[in-house]
Structures are given as structure tokens and as C-alpha cells.
Write a structure and sequence with these properties.
With about 350 residues, the chain is of the alpha/beta class. The protein is built from 13 helices and 13 strands. About 40% of the residues lie in helices and about 15% in strands.
Length: about 350
């Protein structure tokens, strides 16, 4: 079988052989869009060329996030590692930059971002600030954040459906008085989880009870403990918007004399060291963070090579992870099979 040549790639793309040569060697004179199209076509045709030569100027991605996001190593740290690994595997240099409160409040966009071929913005910060970055026209992917005002691709969790899985598991095990904990003004994800909580209660015909809804809270142990002390009658179960809150809730309930899950069940969003090291380990519904990072990089490469395509929001369906913090009724022990036992 005839081996593919540069001319075959040029013919397939309708460009010159010289442009193909420049693109494969990462030389100046061709756009990043053309470079990626040529590399993709070369792989499709089986053309062998040397990648990642140390003397080449590799195309570059920039990962942006706030100080808070980068500090959340158990969650955003996993996504960051995946983004870095996938970028390098695709032949891109990947740099990170921390957005400070001063950057955001002063609307200061780092001037060096124009040196990058694509930008990944991790988590939320300020929509007006993100809008300014989008206005640079550099290809951008948002990860774990979206807003109607932001015209950009986004990689997200299917928050409402994930919450529906979690609350349904509780209800089907006769845990019908279910509390909610999470600051719904903190991020779009938390608000979506709150909506998923209400939607599930409505579908099962269970009335809302705002006396067991904590929807505005600073995520500190002291603040949460004070809120919980004011609950007159504890629910059958609590749903928390993240694993950190669930871990603190578990500590409070046990210190107050409750046995988990015999007296009160706990379920949360996200699977981190908090859910795994808690005693008992906490049942959760969680998005594959490694895949989220991979999908972000793949989507950014696609955006660079298809700049005129409509913007797309891709939602990853979370998986239910069954641990020991939920009480199962005897007749519903088989419900454990709905999720992964870990």
C-alpha cells in the first residue's frame, strides 16, 4: 500500500505542499487552525512525522483560574492535572495563571494572553471579567461554569440529573424528609443542584420544607454548625452540594449524638478524599473529573480548527457512588446496584 505523502495531505485539504511542510514543522507562516488541520489529516492518512521536537515552538494553551479554584486541589486539582496531561499529549505547551481579586476588580486582562493559541477558564470568577477575555477572540473553553451572557463553549456537569439520582435514591428508601445544604448564590452549579432537588421532590409529590433548606452559607465548620443548631427537627436525610459540606455535616451530626446512617442519612455531590475518608464513607453522585479535563482540551482543539461553528455546552452525566452513609430499607437493598459500590 502506498505511503501517504505531504502532497496527499495538501490535496486533501486544498492547500500547498509548502503549507503542509510548515505546519508539520511548526514553522511560522501558517495559522494555528491550518496547523491543527494538517496534523489531524496527517494522522488520518497515516503520514509519519516527528512530533514535539525540542527545537520547535509548540502551540500554547493557557489555563486561567482564581486563587480559590486552584486551592481546591481535591476537586479542581484533578481537572487541572487532566488538562495538563491531555494538552501535552496533543502536542501543546500548557501554562497556568492565577487570577487575583485585584485583576478581576480592576478588569485587568493579562497582556500576554495574546501569545496563546487557546484559553481554558476553570470555574467561575466574574462574568463581566470572563466576557472581557472572550472579547479578545482567542478560542476559549469554560470548564464547570456557564452563563447566558457568555458566548463560549463550556464543559459542565449534568447537575440537575445528578441531583435527581441522589434524591431519588433517598426517597425510594423511605427517606422522604430531605434537607438541602449549599450556597446557591456561590456558583451556577450549586443553583442547578438546588433546582434538581426541588424538581425531584415535586416529581415524587413531596412538599418543600424550607425549614430544612440551608441555601446561604459560608463554607466553614463554625458557620455550618451554627446553622444546624437552629434546625428544630432534623430531616431523615441531608443532601449537600459538595463533599466538604458533607464531611463537616457528618462530623456535626455524630458529635450531636446521631448515628449515620441509622438516624440520619447523608448524600452529596462530588467524590473526593472527604467522601472517601469520612466515617462512614459518604454516598455521592460525582462527575468524572479526569474526563472533564480531557474533554476540555479536545473541545478547545476543535474550536481552534472550527472557529465558525456554533458554541456548544457539553454536560457530563454524573455517576452514583454507593457508600455507607445512606440507610437502605431491607426491600430496597437491591437499589445499591443502581450505582457503583466503592
Amino acid at each position: 500500500m502506498k505511503k501517504a505523502s505531504m502532497q496527499d495531505i495538501a490535496n486533501a485539504l486544498g492547500i500547498s505542499k509548502n503549507s503542509v511542510s510548515q505546519a508539520l514543522r511548526n514553522k511560522a507562516g501558517v495559522s494555528q487552525q491550518t496547523r491543527l488541520l494538517v496534523q489531524k489529516k496527517a494522522e488520518e492518512l497515516g503520514y509519519q512525522y516527528q512530533k514535539n521536537d525540542e527545537n520547535m515552538d509548540r502551540p500554547k494553551f493557557l489555563l486561567l483560574a482564581t486563587e480559590f479554584a486552584f486551592s481546591q486541589t481535591s476537586f479542581f486539582g484533578e481537572i487541572t492535572k487532566s488538562i495538563e496531561t491531555e494538552s501535552l499529549k496533543a502536542g501543546f505547551q500548557i501554562d497556568t495563571h492565577t487570577l487575583t481579586e485585584n485583576d478581576i476588580s480592576s478588569m485587568t486582562i493579562p497582556p500576554f494572553i495574546k501569545e496563546y493559541d487557546g484559553i481554558i477558564i476553570l470555574s467561575h470568577s466574574d462574568n463581566s471579567y470572563i466576557g472581557e477575555i472572550i472579547s479578545t477572540k482567542i478560542p476559549i473553553i469554560l470548564v464547570d461554569h456557564h452563563d447566558p451572557s457568555l458566548l463560549a463553549d463550556a464543559i459542565l456537569s449534568k447537575n440537575t440529573d445528578g441531583t435527581f439520582q441522589a434524591i431519588s435514591l433517598l426517597i425510594e428508601n423511605n427517606l422522604q424528609r430531605i434537607g438541602f445544604i449549599g450556597d446557591i448564590n456561590f456558583s451556577p452549579s450549586y443553583l442547578e443542584r438546588y433546582r434538581g432537588y426541588h424538581r425531584t421532590l415535586a416529581e415524587y409529590g413531596i412538599p418543600y420544607d424550607d425549614s430544612i433548606e440551608i441555601t446561604q452559607i459560608e463554607e466553614t465548620q463554625g458557620t455550618l454548625f451554627n446553622k444546624l443548631k437552629n434546625i428544630e427537627e432534623m430531616p431523615d436525610a441531608w443532601f449537600c452540594v459538595n463533599s466538604g459540606l458533607a464531611f463537616m455535616l457528618n462530623s456535626y451530626l455524630q458529635s450531636a449524638g446521631y448515628t449515620i446512617p441509622d438516624d440520619i442519612s447523608i448524600i452529596c455531590f462530588d467524590d473526593t478524599e472527604f467522601t472517601r475518608t469520612a466515617i462512614p464513607p459518604i454516598t455521592n453522585v460525582a462527575t468524572d473529573l479526569h474526563y472533564m479535563g480531557q474533554l476540555a482540551v479536545r473541545s478547545l482543539i476543535n474550536r481552534i480548527t472550527h472557529v465558525d461553528e456554533p458554541f456548544v455546552h457539553q454536560q457530563i452525566v454524573p455517576q452514583l457512588n454507593i457508600r455507607e452513609s445512606v440507610r437502605f430499607t431491607e426491600k430496597n437493598e437491591n437499589n445499591k446496584k443502581r450505582g457503583t459500590m466503592t
